Amino acid sequence: MTCKTCRSDIFKQKLGRCTRCMKQLTFLSIGGWLTWLEFFQMTPYKIEAIATFMVSSAFTGLLVLHLIAMAYYRLNNTNNNK
To answer: Transmembrane residues, as ranges (predicted)?
Structure first.
C-alpha cells in the first residue's frame, strides 16, 4: 500500500485511516452483492451462491469496521482539539 499508515505493522493502526482500503472495499462490496443478486439470488443453496454471499458479507463487514473506526477517530480528534 502507498500510504504511511498502511505500511505499519499493527492492524489497529490501519483500520479506519486508509482511504484506499475503504475505496477498494466499497467497490468489492458493491460488486459482490450485485453479483449475488444477479446470478445467485434465485438459487441460494448452491455452493457458488453461498461462497459469493460469504465473501460479500466479509467485504461489507470489514468496510463497516473501517467506517466505524474512521468515525471514532474523527470524533476523537475533534474533541481533543477543543
So the answer is: 21-37, 49-73
- Which domain range does residue 50 map to? 19-81
Distance CA 5, CA 9 (A): 9
> Hey, what's the cell of 3?
500510504
pLDDT tens figures, 29-60 = 999 999 999 999 999 999 999 999 999 999 99
The DSSP annotation for the chain comes to --STTTTSS-HHHHTTT-HHHHHHHHHHHHHHHHHIIIIISS-TTSHHHHHHHHHHHHHHHHHHHHHHHHHHHHHHHHHHH-
Per the CB < 8 A criterion, the answer to whether 64 and 29 are in contact is: no
- Domains of the chain: total: 1
pTM over 0.90: no
- Lookup: cell for 15: 483500520
